[in-house]
Amino acid sequence: MDSTLAFTFIDIFVNLDEYLVNIISQYGSWAYLIIFLVIFCETGLVITPFLPGDSLIFILGALAAGGEINLAVIGATLMTAAVLGNVINYRIGSYIGPKVFSGTKIRFLNENHLHRTQDFYKKHGGKTIVMARFLPIIRTFAPFVAGIGGMHKGKFLIYNLVGSVSWVALFLWGGWAFGNIPVVERNLSLVVLGIIIVTCLPALIGFLKERLKKRPQPECSKAEG
Fold first, then answer.
1. How far apart are CA 171 and CA 167, in angstroms?
2. Three-state DSSP class for residue 102
């Protein structure tokens, strides 16, 4: 059952363009609500960092260039979902923060992801809200950690707006500008896979570094003599 679910997720990620075309053709205007919910949940709920973000927006840009979806409407939809998702995530962090710091275990919370985001947040401060937008998984936990840490609401909102608008605009424009180039269009599944790999690399590298740090160091062999 688990392997079937895993293959289903892989299929959705790799063939995201086909799924989106089907959703748009079948649900019409309701497709905007479905897309809104995907981006909102990907950024607003700490339990759904696996949902597509970068690749979804890129493909929507390509579909907008082909006239299958309205560019202005989908842009506004995505930006609103991203901003509101972060706000909700921040508020959840503000509410749960005291419990986390008191040592209470939160069952649905992945502590490894949380600690990685905390380290990133300490290094880059408020800029994390903007920078994390371009890093899968970390972008889901960054507003949550900001809420836990009691980041000023006004400061958070400014960084949130800048990060959300920049993220959506960049990937939407990328899809609109390059998605319908013949070589890209013929290999869109590979392009999507490449986007997923490239955007996940920083998080993967950080994870591997942490694992290497935790590995026990080999004892120096005693000199014979």
1. 6
2. coil
Evaluate if pTM is beyond 0.90: no
37, 87, 174 from 63: Cα distances, Å: 19, 28, 12
Name the region of 119 (left: φ>0; alpha: ψ -120 to 50; beta: rest): alpha
The encoded tokens of residue 173 equal 């424009």
Which amino acid type is present at position 203? A
152-189 residue pLDDT tens? 889 889 999 999 999 999 899 988 888 777 766 666 66
Runs of H (alpha helix) within the chain:
2-14, 16-27, 30-44, 54-65, 71-101, 111-124, 127-131, 138-148, 153-178, 182-186, 188-214
In angstroms, the CA 14 to CA 16 distance is 6
d(C-alpha 163, C-alpha 79), whole Å? 10
